[in-house]
Design goal:
Ribulose 1,5 Bisphosphate Carboxylase/Oxygenase, Rossmann fold, three-stranded parallel beta sheet, 10 helices, 9 strands, globular
Length: 238
């Protein structure tokens, strides 16, 4: 059954051509097509030349967006002893040890990010089925397993976020809000591109970047000229 496209989306799609846009022009068009009745996010959808079923072709890392995410995130921390107080003092919205694990097991998921100290990982394993499908399981690669709680909390609150390639080799990641200026979105998108290049999996062969599309949450997809974006320096973007 074909999904019916709304009149609003059809009208927005008519504004987008099949060509690959210069990065700044694509982001200006993204803003123009963000007409929903709520503050839309700016999303990037990146198809890479990788096959994540092989361990040496998996991509999971973090990026610090220079202009922030535009979101206020709730952070929970699983730690013991004085580390719980340290997390609370650093701005964690929730912090605890065994009692917090029990709350999460009971269905309490009132947080967007879970950070844990390494000594808690054995206890957290029992939460895998609950947290894994939601992308909330702490991981060293994601920067969410650490004893440096204050630093991690501050970085994630300031605009650091974790992302990964899905099983088809596509990265779906939010890189700001449609209400940001096109210039600020470009700085964030450039930082994301550099991060993906920097963390290229060792097993990735041939052409790494296959396609890059951006869109507002409820807007049409807009193709970005990857070569132009990669040739741009972060200083130029800023």
């Amino acid at each position: 059954m074909t999904k019916k496209i709304s009149r609003r989306l059809r009208e927005l799609q008519a504004k987008v051509t099949d060509k690959a846009y210069e990065p700044l022009a694509a982001l200006q068009l993204l803003k123009e097509t963000a007409t929903a009745k709520f503050p839309e996010s700016a999303e990037a959808h990146i198809r890479l030349g990788i096959d994540p079923k092989y361990t040496d072709q998996q991509l999971r890392t973090t990026v610090a967006l220079p202009k922030g995410t535009g979101q206020t995130i709730r952070i929970a921390v699983l730690a013991r002893g004085e580390k719980v107080a340290e997390a609370t003092a650093a701005g964690a919205d929730l912090a605890g040890s065994e009692e917090l694990i029990k709350d999460i097991q009971g269905g309490m998921l009132d947080f967007d990010l879970l950070i844990a100290t390494p000594d808690m990982m054995k206890d957290i394993a029992k939460l895998g089925r609950l947290l894994g499908p939601r992308g909330l399981m702490p991981s060293p690669k994601g920067g969410t397993v650490t004893f440096e709680l204050a630093q991690a909390i501050q970085e994630f609150k300031a605009g650091k976020l974790e992302f990964r390639a899905d099983r088809t080799g596509i990265v779906h990641v939010m890189f700001g809000k449609a209400g940001f200026s096109a210039e600020d979105l470009l700085v964030n998108l450039k930082a994301l591109q550099e991060c993906i290049d920097r963390n290229r999996p060792s097993g990735a062969k041939g052409r790494y970047w296959r396609s890059l599309y951006v869109s507002a949450t409820m807007g049409p997809s807009i193709e970005v000229d990857i070569s132009t974006l990669r040739d741009l320096s972060l200083a130029d973007a800023e």
